[in-house]
Amino acid sequence: MRCLLLIVAMALPAIARTGQQDREFTVKTLDRIARPVLESLSEGRLRKELPLGPGEADRARWTYLEAFGRTMAGIAPWLALGPDETPEGKLRARYIALSRKSLVMATDPASPDRMNFSDGGQPLVDAAFLSQALLHAPEVLWAPLTDAEKANVAAALKETRKIKPYESNWLLFSALVEAALWELTGECEMAPIQRALDKHEEWYVGDGTYGDGPDYHWDYYNSFVIQPAMLTVLDTCQAEKHPLAGRLPKVTERAKRFAAVQERLVSPEGTYPVMGRSSAYRFGAFQHLSMMALRKELPSEVSPAAARGALTAVIHRTIEAPGTFDKKGWLQVGAVGHQPSIREGYISTGSLYLCLAGLQHLGLPATDPFWTAPAEPWTQKRIWAGEDVKADKAMK
Q: Which of 20, 96, 107, 279 has its CB 3.0 to 4.6 Å from that of 335, i.e. a possible disulfide?
């Protein structure tokens, strides 16, 4: 029976679907994943209800902020659309309310779910993902807070300043926190932003790709962290009219090339190479392609409809796999279903919610051509159907 269900799930991406159907499916996926986290946290129950898997007990200090920060990083662009009278708009209104209540619970010193922003190194990572969310949706997440609530959020983010980042993508976590404080409060320490951007320029290896530190790694960290974080930080520099914003055009051109590479990684069947660290983050591996669609900065050779098809196919192949969720609706470790052996020591249940970062294209309204254009095959689907497709070229 499990094999039959898996075969049916795997067949779904091949079905011709409209953009409206793709959006409805993607919204349902967001709701299915995010609901347990935000319903529990908004009522101060996350610490009691979020499960820890075998071997994860030592991650209890950090897993709750992981679940919250990563969930918010994924859903914030969708929240930024605001409520409306459509069924989706009403669902979004509920999530906006849940998200603000959760933000208060996570940062209020008197809350039963007040989170750890300073003990160990991990809080820097997930405070950064939370910062990314605040930067993407300040009007619905930050602006409505009371002065006291804003002070609690800012104080929590500042707690991470005592954490020294590794010489790797972690430099961008400090930069994201400072960018959020800069935009939301006017206060900022520029040194972490300057250093993160300088070092990643130094670590650029060519053809739209950065090393994770001095060395290159075959993994998805250019998408999990590096390129989305660089774009977000540089957007803030541009909004604040800082000279560092002059780097944005070059970084964007590299980002377009990497988006083209990501789109080409999706097979005709909606699979992709599962390789490198953090494979349990599932379709979060395509945060970069999703964000470039959101920014309307896809490369010229990738149409919005093709990107939509590729992203939707990947989400189907991962989220529909049996064992993805436990009996109470929480994510379980795995890239395709439940695969405990794929877990690294730094992974816990909360970590898995970075998959939601692959849904940032939901921040495009339903009326956008990304959703309204007729379905198109993505690049590998065209090639393996025998179409005469132009040769791929490295960027100069």
A: 279
